[in-house]
Amino acid sequence: MRAFPRKALLLAAPLLLTTPLSPFSLLACSSNSDTLDGGSSSSSGSASSSGSSGASSGSAGASGSSGASGTSGTSGASSGTSGASSGTSGASSGTSGASSSGGDGGTLGKLTPGDSTLTITAAGKTRSVLLHVPAAVTKGQIPLVLALHGNGDQNANFVATSGIKALADTDGFVLAAPQGITQTVTVGGQTVPNIDWDAYRSVADGNIDLPLLQALQARLVGSGSIDVKHIVVYGYSQGGYMSFRYGMDAAASLACSAVLAAADPMPGAGLVTNAARKIPVAIQIGDKDYGISGARTTKTELDGNGNPNSYVEIADAGHVPIPGHPAAPLDWCRGQALP
């Protein structure tokens, strides 16, 4: 297992929820201020891990269960879940009506090393994606990581402060970080305000983020530079909830879903059981995170469905700063492969 340095990470203006999210307690959601600050340290502490299919992470230590604030995600939403797996088959061919340009001149030619910005139109929205291509691409097809920032953050800041860009160069994978759009969504009578990623609705019900990720994945696979057996979606906080959702929806074309400080956004609602395959999932969360109950429920759900998984609780850590090293769940996921 990789030895992770202590990368400096913290929310600039942490907003911890100390009371249950009563208006939408059936849906798991992050706070709306997840902007990362590179000037402070990430949480340390021991890690308690469990899982299947060779999952392990962190040093031995006790995992606490008390002290978690909030109860978001403790029970499953039964409404608004129809079509949860919609759009899955389109992950390798793109969403209908989606178009893209930028990066390599708007063509589907081979990717070249360097940084660029892609512009992708999906679900009627024009979206911006930061793309980093390492030198390893000159040697052949390499893995792809789709990286999703937290609420209130920017993709450029997430890439700069998380250390994931340097990891892309070291380990040799293409990094694509789309920018979320702040939105308020309603699912089954529950309103989730001011989120950057819609991890709840189906495409038919107005989800604009699933088509974005489908189009982005298809755009990059179409370049001929991506190892399609090793495509991972990775996210922190609300981006983590979206990572879990897209992982289930696009399970047929993804190797793994890596989730930081998040879990199943609608536990018990069928995202896991309705997925096209038992996709591996890595979850890392602080045992004092307000979403810990939902994460533990998700762990049980994954085990019951037979999904290979790595589940790590960082002792005495909350939602902010980022619990443990941000690359750990990604490192586990990159060891998985699409059959």
Please give a structural write-up:
It contains six helices and 14 strands. The protein has 339 residues and is of the alpha/beta class. It has a single domain (21-333), classed as Rossmann fold (3-Layer(aba) Sandwich). The strands form three sheets. A ten-stranded mixed beta sheet has the order 3-14-13-12-11-7-8-6-5-4, with helices on both faces. A hairpin with a 2-residue loop joins strand 5 (114-122) and strand 6 (125-133). The radius of gyration is 18 Å and the shape is globular. The chain starts with 9 loop residues before the first strand and ends in a 6-residue tail after the last helix.
Concise overview:
The protein is an alpha/beta fold. The chain is 18% helix and 24% strand.
